[in-house]
Fold this protein.
Amino acid sequence: MHHRAKDITGLRVGFLTAMKYHGSDGKKSLWEMLCDCGKTVVQNASEMQKQKKRGITASCGCMRRSTIGQKNTSHGMSHHPGYSVWRAMLDRCGLSTHHAFYNYGARGITVCEKWQQGFDAFWQDMGPSYTRGLTLERLDNNAGYYPGNCAWRTRKQQCNNQRRNRVLDTPSGQMTLSQASEEFGIGKTTLTYRLDQGWPLLAALMTAPKAGNRKSTI
């Protein structure tokens, strides 16, 4: 075990128990966790300690599948789009093998205890405001999934709220770079280039691109 890695042998988080050091992902210590069902999974040590403090009921995924199986027999909505949203939310926050875990569970984004209990609980809070085609968005991208921090949005609205999107204080108010591009009629690539080159925001927004050169970025 690396000399800087904290020994969490025996740490129990929900149904998982830390068994042995598994190495590092370059930044965080990884530990082999034994689930009560007998399966082992590798988890981020610091994330497991955070979940312990928050009282998260973690497992290798077996308890979630068990809960899902039970709920399928009662709510009859396993094929509804909202059900897929709920499942994806749980997986990207709780499964280290999920392709999006790095951007969610690994950085501390969790699902509230109520919604972990089953789809019925989630749908009780979010179902009344759902319209087909909308996606689930967290209003504060640094906080987790819980009733006061979630809302249904169009895909365009959600893209405007992504962490990587720049927020600008424009003459028309605060908006994302994508929104400013649309509002002021400046191509997103051109606007990005100008700001990266140090242009004052007002000049970047109000200066019309040079005519007669489609490849021009200024």
